[in-house]
Specification:
Number of helices: 18
Bound molecules: adenosine-5'-triphosphate, magnesium ion
Number of domains: 2
Largest sheet: 6 strands, mixed
CATH architecture of the largest domain: 3-Layer(aba) Sandwich
Shape: globular
Strand content: 25-35%
CATH topology of the largest domain: Rossmann fold
Strand order of the largest sheet: 6-7-8-3-9-10
Structural class: alpha/beta
Length: 495
């Protein structure tokens, strides 16, 4: 194996108010390797790569690229050295087309040569590699989160990249898109590109990486050859203690039908019919673009229904707006935490209690003690890592932001909860807690619809799974018939 060090980090330290985000971190990255970077939410992974990309200034430490030490890394220096970063938070320009986003830099560099048709053709070629049909002329703001992520990847790999840093690239993708991405990563690797790969999906680490490094609480823990370690060992290294991964046992059987959908059509979905019981967890599977999020929007009144019916507790119910949905005690946890899920500039506490403002207020004044109680409960239960509940959400790590979205949905005490990718970007330990919380809710008669691209989680948590394909119901699978291949076949329409 090639052992040329292309990126060397020495004693990198970065402090934020109340948080030592990086504590003397030292690490080496080799030419042509896929190097996975693991750690719990808030461990410092994104901060470390931002330092390499020149997106933040470090307090102390040394960064060398190709043997050359640099006093200060700026974004343009980092890019000129062939470092491309796919950030955890998207960095696309919403009001430009896909093609323009992919070739944005070229456009500004050689504006005289810039040719719309040309970049559209180039973009179409890059997108073709993913086997995803995205029209390069479409505006990025009209794309789903998964499609945006594919544009991000296309943008990075279309450059002359030497070190590709991917911060949770797979989070919004489902199985088949991840496969495409792995193919592209392997092609890059053959060309000698170094890939730094951050993910909370451990099975991916074993699929794609040569080495894996673990961080904990801002500190470097260790680096292993991937083939010499195990899932359990990595979890223990990340969490700092033994952690058993199990899906909680359910106490109660599902009861009466809580939600029934008959021939529901709209928002790109057609003729969907299914029902969910009280205390049942219904998994919703499908590939990117299958219409899962679109279904959630229909049920939550966030998109107009063209035809068909929704019945709640046996009664035909008109849901024309999210307010209607909330009135009928339907809650939605959206997949897009940045766009719809959170008020980023507001404190954590405020975000969690916002939807229940009325319930915890008297004469229009919020009972701050109640507000604190609720926020503190979830902070502790799902381990939101922050020095204070007054912290602005924007300053939290990606996974901790997702925990706030989740806390907000849980605190609302809905009867029917729709979760769209609830554990996306959440670390293994917190995932276990969330699974327990969901199980408790179901045992207490709450109805849960869970859209998830994480197949393990879908199989582990659902009582039943429905599969969507191109906006239609492709099948319904009972627990005794759960099988990953069968579900994937249904999802890809090959069954
Ligand atoms: N701008 C900021 N202001 C204050 N604190 C910050 C800021 N950016 C990061 N932090 C804190 O630094 C720590 C490390 O965050 P970082 O985003 O690097 O974590 P991470 O390992 O990427 O986690 P995740 O898996 O959730 O994405 C966290 O405690 C986070 O709250
Ligand atoms: Mg991060």
């Amino acid at each position: 194996m090639d052992t040329k060090v292309v990126l060397s980090l020495e004693n990198i330290t970065k402090r934020y108010p109340g948080v030592l985000a990086l504590n003397k971190v030292s690490m080496n990255f080799l030419e042509g390797e896929v190097h996975a970077l693991l750690g719990e939410n808030g461990a410092g992974k994104s901060t470390l790569i931002k330092a390499v990309a020149g997106a933040i200034d470090i307090d102390s430490g040394r960064i060398s690229i190709n043997g050359q030490e640099y006093e200060k890394i700026t974004p343009s220096l980092s890019r000129s050295l062939g470092i491309e970063v796919i950030y955890q938070e998207f960095n696309l320009v919403p009001t430009l087309s896909c093609a323009e986003n992919i070739y944005l830099c070229e456009k500004s560099e050689k504006s005289a040569l810039f040719n719309a048709k040309d970049i559209e053709k180039k973009a179409a070629n890059v997108l073709d590699q993913f086997g995803v049909k995205i029209d390069p002329q479409r505006m990025v703001q009209d794309l789903s989160i998964a499609e945006q992520q594919i544009i991000e990847i296309a943008k990075a790999v279309s450059k002359n990249v030497k070190i590709l840093i991917m911060d949770e690239p797979s989070a919004p993708l489902s199985v088949s898109e991840v496969e495409m991405m792995f193919k592209i990563i392997n092609q890059l690797k053959e060309k000698g590109v170094t890939v730094i790969y951050i993910s909370h999906r451990l099975e991916e680490v074993f699929r794609i990486s040569d080495r894996v490094s673990v961080m904990r609480d801002g500190s470097y823990v260790t680096t292993k050859n991937t083939k010499d370690t195990s899932r359990q060992e990595l979890i223990t290294l990340m969490v700092g203690r033994e952690l058993k991964e199990t899906y909680p046992k359910r106490k109660n059987l599902p009861g009466d039908v809580a939600l029934e959908v008959k021939n529901l059509t709209g928002n790109g979905d057609r003729n969907l019919s299914f029902s969910v019981r009280k205390g049942e967890i219904l998994g919703i599977s499908g590939l990117v673009g299958a219409g899962r999020t679109e279904l959630a929007q229909l049920l939550f009144g966030a998109a107009p229904i063209e035809s068909g019916e929704i019945l709640i507790n046996g009664k035909i119910t008109k849901i024309r707006s999210p307010l209607d949905a909330i009135h009928h005690k339907i809650g939605l946890l959206t997949e897009d935490r940045k766009g719809q899920g959170l008020f980023l500039e507001m404190p954590i506490k405020w975000n969690i209690s916002f939807p229940i403002g009325q319930r915890i207020s008297k004469y229009g004044v919020v009972n701050t003690k109640k507000e604190d109680e609720i926020a503190t409960k979830y902070k502790e239960r799902i381990n939101i890592k922050t020095p204070s509940l007054l912290q602005q959400v924007v300053n939290l790590s990606g996974g901790n932001q997702q925990k706030v979205v989740l806390a907000k949905a849980l605190a609302a005490e809905s009867d029917i909860l729709i979760f769209d990718e609830p554990t996306r970007g959440i670390d293994v330990g917190a995932k276990q807690e969330i699974y327990h919380l969901m199980t408790e809710l179901a045992d207490n008669g709450i109805t849960i619809l869970m859209i998830s691209s994480d197949m393990e989680e879908l199989l582990g948590m659902s009582d039943r799974i429905i599969v969507l394909c191109e906006g239609e119901l492709a099948g319904e699978v009972q627990k005794e018939n759960f099988n990953q291949h069968f579900i994937l076949d249904l999802a890809s329409g090959t069954h």
